[in-house]
Amino acid sequence: MFSQLKPLPTDPILGLMAAFKADTNDKKIDLGVGVYKDEQGQTPVLKAVKKAEEFRLANETTKSYIGLAGNLEYCQKMEQLLLGDAHPALLADRVRTAQAPGGTGSLRVAAEFIKRCNEQATVWVTTPTWANHISLFEAAGLNVKEYPYYDYDNKGLLFDDMVNTLSQVPAGDVVLLHACCHNPSGMDLNFAQWQKVAEIAKVQGFTVLVDIAYQGFGTSLDEDAAGLRHLASQVDELIICSSCSKNFGLYRERIGACSVISKDQATADIANSVMLSVVRSIYSMPPAHGADIVNTILSSDELTAMWHQELDDMRSRINGLRSLLKDKLNDKCEGMDFSFIERQHGMFSFLGINKEQIERLQKEYSIYIVGSSRVNVAGVSKDNIDYFADAVAAVTK
Ligand code: PMP
């Protein structure tokens, strides 16, 4: 049976990671993979996480299963982190959450849940979007279509075109929005634009899925969720897929959550039973470690304060690098304007250079960027920023 299989190409980002690893140039820079890096190019374990892990090691009493929805205290803490403590949807008991293996796991749960609601549903994603969105929804057997989002020419949003397309999406379909720090463009909706999208969702009756994988990496924990919270206050139904990979630095622990908001408590209970049945048929129960760490941090004022500080530090570093990168590139690359880098949020921006220039960066300078020209701003440091800007200037001359 296996001999019928045809080999598949390596995922471009994973291929890039392997090529970077094999490169012996000590000036090499990896701007491909989407993980936060500090000034030393490391992705360290947060101190708050280490403390929580020490606590867990000392106090864990069993390795028995944790149940389909996972750690219920974690689920509740995540709802509060996402929506704020006193959100009307929480007060009305309309939210149900299942812990999931990473943001990706939560998206797969959401995909199967959508399929149980409407097998014919089309999921609408931004052009462009995180590549895995498309394969993930298609793998679940759903149709995927794109709506205009990033304006490659003007390095902004195609908001009017987005509005036009969304105004034709019917009830029964799902529109996926990135809450903040859009991957791959870094270009986010402002609050007025979120309000407009909420109006369209109400008129059209489609369901919105908000993917929030970078809460706290843009402006602040609250501001990064402001659009999501507004939307949740306006519509009857909403799906939220969240990830703790980036903001808690828990990437390999695979911790996220899928939250479903329904029109009333009774529907929420039914939706919850369906979501848990989906979980049962995919992985039965989620892993315990990551949820326990997040719950321990969010249950302690001291650890929460420590985490807030560490998250602020990561965000400040990214935003500082955005300003510096803009200045250096504008200085060194004559006739080019990189001011968009400072207007965007999170780790990613498109440099807007072509394939040949990207290849030259890799071959001649050992600078690794994915083919779309998306760069992970956190991959730059004060030590290599001049080398990087000089290289970009050289290949774009
Ligand atoms: N959504 C988006 C937009 C992402 O960028 C990512 C991670 N790259 C995820 C979801 C999934 O995150 P996780 O690693 O937690 O599965």
Automatic annotation (TrEMBL):
Q: Which SUPFAM superfamilies does this entry report, sorted A to Z?
A: PLP-dependent transferases (SSF53383)
Q: Which Pfam families match?
A: Aminotran_1_2
Q: What class of enzyme is it?
A: transferase
User: In Gene Ontology terms, what is a biological process of this protein?
Assistant: L-phenylalanine biosynthetic process from chorismate via phenylpyruvate
| Keyword check for Transferase | yes
InterPro entries the UniProt entry points to: Aminotransferase_I/II_large, Asp_trans, NHTrfase_class1_PyrdxlP-BS, PyrdxlP-dep_Trfase, PyrdxlP-dep_Trfase_major, PyrdxlP-dep_Trfase_small
The cofactor named in the record is: pyridoxal 5'-phosphate
Q: Per the UniProt record, which EC number(s) apply here?
A: 2.6.1.-
Ranges of residues in domain Aminotransferase class I/classII large: 27-392
The record's keywords, sorted A to Z, are: Aminotransferase, Pyridoxal phosphate, Transferase
What GO CC terms are in its UniProt record?
cytosol
As one GO molecular function, the record gives: pyridoxal phosphate binding
Q: To which protein family does this belong?
A: Belongs to the class-I pyridoxal-phosphate-dependent aminotransferase family.
Database matches in NCBIfam families: PRK09257.1
**What interactions and quaternary structure are annotated?**
Homodimer.
Descriptive protein name: Aminotransferase
Q: What is the lineage of its organism?
A: Bacteria, Pseudomonadati, Pseudomonadota, Gammaproteobacteria, Alteromonadales
